[in-house]
């Protein structure tokens, strides 16, 4: 009792009556203490020490809640970038030479450092700089981040299967262009380091303090050698200076909007650095008539207050069945009105300020209201001084299906409620919503819930739950769904691919052509999109029968090969058809034990896959059976000499039962065929040609782009390289994860 009195706590009966949290012992913000220990003047973390260039202009690191400067950092420029790249390049050989088990142990030490005595400091800085409530940054977010770091560390220690002979890329840059949580960063940083690369993190000043602490912690306890992790703070355009450093062989963007990304990227998927697009988007929730409305409303309101850590922006769209929409709306209004909004460093806060740099969704809300929608907003409480960065929890109901609030994701605690007649309409609406990262279904009728989940296109679906994430369950949603295997491969070079040469200049920026009106290509993509649901949802055995029949038909053809074809090519193609028929018959999924239940992890086809071939690469038709066998519909733009063999393959497949539109072969009359295909927005794009065929600025709108290595298919008459089949399977599909509640911890 004396201890309670010393803390100024109320009597015990009052605590139980109000259920209010008490004061924190000590009352000192550890993030502020760390900033004060550096005189609130930070530097860059380069080569295991602080880099503070003399006489440099400083940039302010503002608090997310008030906009007041929490610290300052020197403006990073091209000279600092050159020092950081040189440090990372110097450390790359020794770090790769440690071997995967040793690297895994070092990453485990880094996770222990993040979880140790400085855990409170890291959580407080994330809340101070990013605006996510401390209850999340110090709790679920940090716990998830540690799991995302330990997963690739464990994979490196055990030796990830299928990656034998893979080598590191070298120096990889992570560019933060907008709101990015610690878990999202560690989901890239962990696999990057586990594969033997060194990292250069470019951060805007607003996000710099916690990342600089991460750099400092990486040197404690001999976690990472100097130069392996470098953090630079600077203006948004600093990443353009990477073009002058051929040592940087990979660049991944986090948090940047697509329109911003198109102005920053350079080179092509076939040459120059590998580029990774940002993840993100909103969550769509389907509430059916058998749902427990109280638990659904509580989870939806909590998600609006603090979105999932891996895609922390975009809001939430709720599709409620007509019979329960009104009751759910009443519960949502009550829940939103009871959320605690305030200082993100206060453990009691549930809703913090908007992410740094985010524009309030006032225009979206006002436009919906003018269109006749009803808008509920919780009243704003007394805010911290200068608290202009907050937005009240908001619910929009009765909006038109074409309203801007449904077309465009918006940051902040914003919910859009839309009634639907039943599960089929809910699936159609969820499929049409742009930029959705994940979906959730609330229903007590398990049969209807599972059927609805199976028809949703989102790669991550929760059943009667929200915001459950784990690396073993396929933890990333949105356009770039990623499991651990793909996360590791993103930062490695396979044995059939030539590693980039350091002394070669990066592929220059490619001037984007004016849009070309190609009605034949547009018609082919539209036909493929129409055929994709039917072909992709067929059982694997049905697709295998089509491939076997096509192989038999090709084998029955006699006579002189035509159009540059050869007997070796025919035999290779028949073998590929039979091999992938056998593969798809035994393809399956896995059930993973995850926090809160179990996850059913499978792989699904992309949908429409565009393949652009151009000279001087020969047409390797044996790559196409993998895409078709795994359920994709393919549009091929082939060089003039390759159209004949491709058309014969198509004829054999159609005769065997392939749906019309599932495979279209068009002659290519331009070396920019990849750009033309990209403008029609296929779900995935393969580029089998030179760097001039497609540039990143054109391809960035396509969720998955792959510059196909020349050595992957092997020469005609030869077997494909070891491990190539697994690589093709991953390139033809995306992970799909269904979380099932199981009452676990």
Structural class: alpha/beta
Biggest sheet, strands in spatial order? Answer: 13-14-15-12-11-16-17-26-20-19
How far is the N terminus from the C terminus?
Answer: 32 Å
In terms of DSSP E residues, the strand content is 15-25%
The largest pleated sheet is described as: 10 strands, mixed
Question: Which segments are poorly predicted (pLDDT under 50) over 5 or more consecutive residues?
Answer: 1-7, 502-514
Model description:
- By secondary structure, the chain is α/β, with parallel strands linked by helices.
- The protein contains 25 helices and 26 strands.
- A ten-stranded mixed beta sheet has the order 13-14-15-12-11-16-17-26-20-19, with helices on both faces.
- Helix 3 packs across helix 6 (119-130), helix 11 crosses helix 12 and helix 19 (540-556) runs antiparallel to helix 20 (567-585).
- The longest helix is centred in the N-terminal third of the chain and has 25 residues, at 134-158.
Nutshell version of this structure?
The chain has 25 helices and 26 strands. With 745 residues, the chain is an alpha/beta fold.
Topology:
Blueprint: H1 2-6, H2 12-18, H3 30-37, E1 44-46, E2 49-51, E3 58-62, E4 69-74, H4 78-97, H5 100-115, H6 119-130, H7 134-158, E5 167-168, E6 171-176, H8 182-194, E7 198-203, H9 208-218, E8 229-233, E9 248-254, H10 258-264, E10 274-276, E11 282-287, H11 293-305, E12 316-321, H12 322-337, H13 362-370, E13 374-377, E14 394-397, H14 404-407, E15 414-420, H15 423-432, E16 436-442, H16 446-455, E17 460-463, H17 484-489, E18 492-493, H18 519-536, H19 540-556, H20 567-585, E19 590-594, E20 597-605, E21 608-613, H21 624-629, E22 633-638, H22 643-656, E23 663-667, H23 673-679, E24 684-688, H24 696-699, E25 704-707, H25 724-732, E26 733-741
Parallel strand pairs: 6-7, 6-9, 7-8, 9-10, 11-12, 11-16, 12-15, 14-15, 16-17, 17-26, 21-22, 21-24, 22-23, 24-25
Antiparallel strand pairs: 1-2, 3-4, 5-18, 13-14, 19-20, 20-26
Helix pairs in contact: 3-6, 5-7, 6-7, 6-9, 7-8, 11-12, 19-20, 19-22
């Amino acid at each position: 009792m004396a201890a309670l009195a010393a803390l100024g706590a109320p009597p015990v009966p009052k605590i139980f009556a109000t259920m209010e949290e008490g004061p924190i012992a000590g009352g000192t913000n550890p993030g502020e203490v760390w900033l004060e220990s550096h005189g609130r003047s930070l530097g860059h973390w380069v080569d295991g020490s602080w880099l503070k260039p003399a006489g440099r202009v400083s940039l302010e690191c503002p608090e997310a809640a008030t906009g007041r400067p929490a610290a300052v950092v020197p403006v990073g420029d091209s000279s600092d970038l050159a020092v950081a790249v040189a440090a990372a390049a110097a450390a790359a050989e020794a770090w790769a030479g440690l071997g995967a088990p040793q690297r895994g142990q070092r990453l485990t030490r880094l996770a222990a450092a993040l979880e140790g005595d400085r855990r409170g400091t890291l959580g407080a800085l994330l809340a101070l700089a990013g605006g996510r409530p401390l209850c999340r940054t110090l709790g679920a977010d940090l716990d998830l981040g540690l799991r995302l770091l330990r997963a690739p560390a464990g994979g490196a220690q055990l030796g990830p299967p299928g990656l034998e002979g893979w080598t590191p890329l070298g120096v990889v840059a992570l560019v933060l262009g907008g709101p990015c949580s610690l878990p999202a960063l560690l989901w890239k940083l962990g696999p990057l380091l586990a594969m033997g690369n060194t990292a250069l993190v470019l951060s805007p000043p607003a996000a710099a303090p916690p990342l600089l602490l991460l750099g400092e912690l990486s040197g404690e306890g001999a976690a990472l050698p100097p130069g392996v992790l470098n953090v630079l703070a600077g203006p948004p355009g600093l990443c353009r200076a990477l073009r002058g450093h051929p040592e940087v062989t990979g660049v991944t963007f986090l948090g940047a909007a697509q329109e911003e990304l198109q102005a920053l990227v350079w080179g092509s998927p076939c040459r120059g650095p590998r580029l990774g697009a940002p993840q993100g988007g909103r969550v769509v929730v389907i509430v059916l008539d058998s749902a427990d409305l109280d638990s659904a409303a509580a989870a939806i309101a909590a998600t609006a207050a603090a979105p999932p850590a891996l895609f922390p922006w975009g809001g939430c769209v709720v599709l409620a069945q007509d019979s329960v929409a009104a009751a759910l709306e009443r519960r949502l209004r009550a829940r939103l009105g009871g959320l605690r909004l305030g200082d993100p460093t206060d453990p009691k806060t549930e809703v913090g300020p908007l992410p740094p740099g985010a524009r309030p969704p006032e225009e979206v809300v006002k436009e919906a209201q003018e269109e006749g929608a009803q808008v509920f907003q919780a009243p704003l409480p007394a805010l911290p001084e200068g608290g202009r960065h907050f937005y009240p929890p908001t619910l929009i109901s009765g909006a038109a299906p074409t309203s801007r609030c449904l077309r465009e994701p918006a940051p902040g605690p914003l919910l859009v409620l839309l009634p639907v007649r039943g599960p089929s309409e809910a699936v159609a609406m969820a499929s049409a919503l742009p930029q959705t990262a994940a979906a959730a279904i609330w229903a007590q009728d398990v049969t209807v819930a599972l059927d609805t989940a199976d028809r949703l296109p989102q790669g991550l679906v929760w059943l009667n739950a929200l915001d459950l994430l784990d690396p073993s369950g396929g933890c990333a949603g949105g356009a770039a769904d990623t499991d651990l295997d793909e996360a590791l491969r993103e930062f490695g070079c396979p044995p059939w691919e030539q590693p980039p040469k350091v002394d070669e200049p990066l592929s220059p920026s490619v001037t984007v052509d004016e849009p070309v009106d190609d009605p034949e290509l547009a018609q082919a993509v539209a036909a493929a999109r129409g055929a994709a649901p039917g072909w992709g949802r067929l059982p694997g055995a049905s697709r295998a029968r089509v491939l076997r029949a096509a192989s038999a038909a090709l084998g029955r053809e006699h006579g002189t090969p035509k159009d540059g074809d050869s007997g070796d090519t025919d035999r290779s193609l028949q073998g590929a058809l039979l091999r992938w028929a056998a593969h798809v018959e035994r393809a399956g999924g896995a059930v993973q034990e995850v926090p809160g239940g179990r996850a059913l992890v499978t792989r699904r086809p992309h949908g429409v896959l565009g393949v652009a071939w151009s000279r001087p690469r020969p047409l390797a038709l044996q790559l196409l059976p993998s895409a078709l066998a795994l359920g994709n519909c393919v549009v091929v733009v082939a060089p003039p000499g390759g159209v004949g063999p491709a058309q014969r393959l198509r004829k054999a497949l159609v005769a065997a039962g392939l749906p019309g539109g599932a495979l279209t072969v068009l002659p290519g009359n331009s070396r920019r065929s990849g750009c033309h295909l990209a403008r029609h927005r296929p779900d995935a794009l393969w580029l089998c040609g030179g760097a001039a065929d497609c540039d990143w600025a054109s391809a960035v709108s396509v969720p998955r782009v792959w510059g196909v290595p020349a050595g992957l298919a092997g020469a005609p008459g030869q077997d494909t390289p070891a491990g190539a089949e697994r690589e093709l399977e991953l390139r033809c599909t995306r992970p799909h994860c269904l979380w099932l509640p199981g009452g676990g911890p």
